[in-house]
Amino acid sequence: MDFSAPKFSGLAVYTPGEQPKDKRYLKLNTNESPFPLSPHAQEALKRDDLADLRLYSDPESTELTAALAAHYGLCSDQVLVTNGSDEALAFAFLIFCQNKVRYPAISYGFYRSFASLARIEACEVELKEDFSIDPADYFDSDCPVVIANPNAPTGLALPRCAIEEILRRNPGQIVVIDEAYVDFGAESAVPLIARYPNLVVVGTFSKSRSLAGGRIGFALSSKDNIDALKRIKYSFNPYNVNRMSAIVAKAAVEDDAYFRACCAAVAATRERTKTALIERGFGVTDSKANFLFAAHPAIDGETLYLELKKRGVLVRFLKGERLRPYVRVSVGSDADMERFLAEVDAITASCPCLSSQNHV
Prior knowledge:
By secondary structure, the chain is of the alpha/beta class.
């Protein structure tokens, strides 16, 4: 018998990327960092910290909040630390969206889930033919706007001036910019916070700071907007960030040189892999994220995903008519991407219609 509340029976649940338990696969499907946690962060945990796990964590994540504020040139009361950026986004949907929300129809799949959970209308805006976002589609909106920049799964990014124009044209609406992938080559909207009280920027430690398993995210905005987000947090889970993750994340923020080196390495590997795929006949978007969005005219995305999986390589295939030709490939180490390309060559070599395009 189902005892769940009927109002939640139709929730648009999010489907995470595959997380194999046997670790046999090369995982290029969930945009995790190929690099280990910062050495400074690895050294941050001490035996006393483990002993203190018997105590509740600091509900304000005071030291991590201060470190993020210093890093971004903000005050501590303009920062909220959350359990992954998903929590920050969920809080924003709940507190700022009264009846509906506007976001791209092809974007982070969790937006639909958050709208469903908040029981608000999802106004999904189609992308342009080239998968880019048209800023004008978000001018003079009658509801809050949420944009991932760079967008997922395309990796395409809007310049800061386009984000500013969206903010300027929506003085009465909150605009949430989800910057999960911004560190790999896009322009952050954080410098606009001082001029636009309707801006909320959401970030994560999962990608560029190698802490996907630590579940650390954050929101940056005006004090008033952060206070509003805190009303949801303190109605849901005051102790939302565990002690160990907060300590490690603070150290990761402070190790700026390592962070920048890792981001630069990922971006360089991304560009080399993009070039190699184009040479093999693939169409690839101009990604500014830590993944590539690629399609071959002679093999559909699901087939390529399944063939790669047979060979021990996981990429992401996302359902949808426009997405069907594509796979999203996380950028791993140079060795990871060499193996990925070798497996692509093996697949295309076994397909007669592609044999003339092989690069072995």
